[in-house]
Design goal:
The protein is built from one helix and four strands. With 114 residues, it is α+β, with helices and mostly antiparallel strands. The protein has one domain.
Length: 114
């Protein structure tokens, strides 16, 4: 019984450490992500007064992971931008270990109907 309790405590501790790391990763990239999306949005909307609203944020794991193959973990932010009577939504991706972020949108990535 004591071994089971000890094992459960270790697993809980490891899970909580992983969550803290994800939060730190998201926090460390959030300002850079907002700056990236605002530069793009203000240009596309032709609106220097546009302001951002963070709608969601999450850490996205690589699609491929294994002993011989691995992808890059990334922070993904969904940001709404409003100004000059317009509203748009952007997705911003910041790869782990990278120097910058990439803002996508507005619009669909692919026309799935064709």
């Amino acid at each position: 019984m004591a071994k089971t309790c000890t094992l459960m405590m270790i697993i809980a501790m490891l899970v909580s450490v992983g969550c803290a790391t994800n939060q730190q990763f998201l926090n460390s990239n959030q300002d850079k992500a907002l700056q990236t999306v605002m530069t793009k949005a203000r240009f596309e909307m032709n609106c220097p007064e546009a302001t951002p609203t963070l709608l969601s944020r999450e850490v996205v794991q690589p699609a491929l992971q294994g002993p011989w193959v691995g992808g890059i973990q990334r922070a993904e932010y969904t940001v709404g931008v409003a100004g000059c009577g317009k509203r748009m939504t952007y997705v911003v991706i910041c790869p782990e270990g990278g120097d910058g972020c990439f803002a996508t949108g507005p619009g669909r990535f692919h026309d799935w109907q064709q």
